[in-house]
Amino acid sequence: VPTFESDVCVIGGGITAAMLAKKLLELRPSLSINVVEAGRRLFDLENRMEYRRRSIIYGENAWPGDFIEDQNAAGTISRTMAVGGSALHWGGTCNRFSEEDLRLKSVFGLYTDWPIEWHELEHFYCEAERRLGVSGEPSPLPEDWRSEPYPMPAMALTYNLIELKKWGAKSGIPFWSTPQAKNTKPYDGRAQCIRCNTCLICPTGARYSPDFTYKQLISHKNFGLFDQTLVRRLQIDDRARITAAVAVHRERPEEKIIFHAPVFVVASGYTWSSHLLLLSQNSRFPNGLANTSGLVGRYMCGHKFITSIIEIDAKIYPGMNETHALISRQFFRCKPDVPYVRHDLRIWESSTGREPRLKAKNGVFLLGDDLLNDWRLRAQRGAARVRGYYDVHPDRNSSLTLDSDVKNRWGDPLPKIEHKLDEATVARQAHTSEHFNRVFENLARNDNGRILNTSEGRYLDHPAGGCRMGTDPASSVCDSYGRTHDHENLFVVGSPTLPNAGCTNGTLTFVALSLRSAEHIAKEFRSVSKS
Amino acid sequence: MHRRTLLQRLTGLFGTLSFVRTGSFAQAGVFTQKQRLALIDLASIVLPSALGKSGFEEAAMRFDRYVREYHAGADTDHGYGFTHVVPKPSSPFAAYADQLSSLPMPVTRIAVEQALEKSQIKELPRTPEGKSVIADLMSFYFRSSEANDLCYRAEIGRDACRGLAGSERAPSPLRRSG
Fold first, then answer.
1. Which ipTM did the prediction report?
2. Global confidence as pTM
3. Which of A50, A65, A157 lies at the smallest CB-CB distance from B168?
4. pLDDT of A175-193, one tens digit each?
């Protein structure tokens, strides 16, 4: 049986694993690290312009080969499994949470608090922004203080966003440029953004993706990257320490591969981290590893979102930079004595309701100039896509479970995610909807605005959870560093450890927490790894 | 333009695109000259007159290239939120070729409308989907960055990599805006 030894074995090859491994090697260059990832490595930057072209023209997958046919989870929001993970095709949005997200219980009497102080997290936010290369404009709100400037100036607002910012300001809501992991100048060996309008497949590398970090890491003599290698189980010894990760190579499915290490880190995202722990059942831990609390795969979280398309008089030219948006954090805070609602607010340029159409309202075919004239008529006024990601809290039974009816080729049951919100969240839903209607109507009062439609998202976005952190082993899976309460040498990092998903994109927070874990592991390696 | 001259020009135009990367995907068929002429004729009816004769030819040529470089079975985007793994269906070439051959020459607006009725296409497809060469040619053009510029009479260049400088200004007026 092929067996590989290292000091630290990281399971999962996404953005948090990349950041953790890089920092660990910086802090302790003598450590050896193996990263084991089920998907393949897609290190072909040179082909991305062509992938982009085919994605635009044919609707083909811009990241060919970035998923595994028989390794899917019901309820997941992305199929991507590759070295780099979902952050291969992320939009690069790097918003921070706010202190309120960490103090729900103590400030609002809701859900739970995080076992970490905001000041400490803020320090790691700065580091995450430096490592990812974030371009941003500081929030004008004093509550959004930051201890360091953004590493790069903000992405320039396009003409469209300047118009939309003026429109938004008329309603009394300040908007500014959304921070993003996109280079507004050459940074960390990667090029400056050239505004290709296809950030999901950045053909130049101006938008950060973890493949760049992995390409740096594999040149390090102490780093090993094992792609297409699916870890199926973790094994323990009689002291409940993890001794091995048992894996298979996807191209040699009969061949077992063993990874040994004194320290294991599960960095497999919100789906596959809990899944692996639940799969790793044994006589001592019949419900899976790290699961004495019964909370592995519980408190699966994310946030809801509501979107409104608002037509306005301003001239908007769709396509100037569709993935860049304005943000307001005005609604990140909520007074404790008023009905609770917290959310971010974003504005994008939009072409909704003004696309070319084949038939007029009366059913007549529109051909040639008729179609163009009809299109021009409907496109005279601009449109804005306004969205708020709002804070919701998970019920204990918001779960990831093993679905014994759906198995991969090795017979392992695959995960099934079913989100469920807690009672308090459900009870305030009507108020939340009314609040958003007021916000959208307030915006639409200006510039002769008209709300074309408003819709609720049908899934929880920017999902997280499943191994939530806490101080009490009875109500959490791991501590604030991701160290599991049940196994002294097993860490979980990134999205699974979040108790709740805040009300804005989570990646920067996943990375900040992972960097904090890396620092802790580096510092405590000797004591954690001792046998 | 005389038909023979046009055919010679077409041979040049379409011929330049014959060496394309096909990867491991099967090469779709190649339209006959008659079908190519029908495609140009069709373009002159369903695309904006502002394109002019050369614009119709170019649009037809690009569509022809689209068909030839089509990769049946290629993975499509697997989505976000609700995921789905759906490979690209088989090449639309054969259906297109049949439909082009059955169009009257010269192509008439009535024939186009009848064919659209017959195909039961109700909306402009998001991307060409292989049911109707007419709707797909229209989709191919009207969903393009070029058509977006024409609609807004501005050089937006949605699908181009344009750099950040100057993006704070409104796009320049389109030189040929129809």
1. 0.94
2. 0.95
3. A157
4. 999 999 999 999 999 999 9
